[in-house]
Amino acid sequence: MIQLLIEANHYFNAELSTYFENIAEGEWFSVATLLAFSFAYGVVHALGPGHGKALLSGYLLAHPKLKTSHIFRIGFFIALVHAFSALVLSLSATYMIHASATKLLRDVTLPMTQVSGGLILLMGCWILFEVVRSRRDVEKVDTKKELSVIILSGIVPCPGVMTLSFFAMTLGELYIGIVAALCMSLGMGLTISLVGFVTSRLTHLSMIQTQPLWFWVLRVIGAVMVIGIGAVLVGFSGARSF
To answer: Which domain holds residue 6?
Structure first.
């Protein structure tokens, strides 16, 4: 499965390059195809293993009262932040004469991931404390927590968006590249949100709802998942899928 996703990413990268080249040569009908293709790329790109979906799943298990609208809002905003951080890094690399894009991505991703992991670890500990303390009561929606999940999940730059951005900038089509990156983020957001939705449905199963102890244990598992993700990212040593 992982190998299939890797091959799919290579295929999308090759096709995106071709579409940008066609646009640079004046074939503007390729723009609509490029944007649709970017959305599909985002959907596939987000299917791979990564901390964004895992963190959201853990958070939703620990906070089972979130509505479907909240879940999709978090999922899409995670993808937007993920894409935006990649765009900022890509633009910065363009104006740095002596730094290659690959080296910049490697140098920036590692510390950002580890710092993000440390903050996720702290957030997980706080969520676990609240779950243990509340025991039966489920906390209400906390906008600050949602914002933390969005930022900590998405702050590490997306390699796929960076690749797309460099294609666009190399061929002088920056604005089209930005719109394509937005379409890609929407595709990622759809995948992330659907994973979160499926996870959330677990807490609504009758066997969970009618057994307070199971319900509480599931929330504890969610909090522990967040802690585990933070610990893994603190020890992060190489680029991963989202």
So the answer is: 2-234
Only one residue has tokens 């404390």, namely 129
Q: Measured in whole angstroms, how far is the alpha carbon of residue 205 from the centre of its chain?
A: 27
CA–CA dist 12, 10 (Å, integer): 6
Please name the residues in contact with 10: beta carbons below 8 A apart, sequence gap of 6 or more.
none
Say what the pTM is. Answer: 0.77
- AA identity, residue 217: V
For 171-217, what is each residue's pLDDT tens digit?
Answer: 777 888 889 899 999 999 999 999 889 888 877 776 666 677 777 78
Count of domains forming the chain: 1
d(CA 50, CA 239): 10
Residue 33 lies in a domain: yes
For residues 223 and 126, give the distance between their C-alpha atoms in angstroms, rounded to a whole number. Answer: 9
Question: From the centroid of its chain, how far is CA 140?
Answer: 24
Q: Specify the residue for token string 């895992």.
A: 54
- Interior/surface letters 12-35, b for 16+ CB within 10 angstroms, e for the rest: beeebbebbebbbeeeeebbeebb
